[in-house]
Request: fold
Amino acid sequence: MICTSLENSGYDVVYSTTPKVIEETRKDAPSLIIMNNSQERMDYLKTIRNDSELAFTPVICVSDKQDRENEAEGFSLGVNDFLYRPLDAQKLLSSVRRIEDIL
Reply:
């Protein structure tokens, strides 16, 4: 749903679920990162924030409502927004556009 909603709105999307997500992210130099929120992903976020090429790339975390306890840690690591499942395409696009406006 995320990829489809963004692509239908004219965004280029690169999707990855591999363990090499950090390397792939560096290679693609995205203007926005959307990632699942889990402790493992928070570790990825720490790596992203410590990478000179990605440190200031905006991040949206998609999470399950029961994982809200990671929200404070995520914001402290520079997450720009959290969205919760079930995702709403309009909320997703609003969040992306709000971040674009800041850039």
About this structure: Helices lie at 2-8, 21-28, 39-49, 71-76, 89-102. The two ends are 25 Å apart (CA to CA).
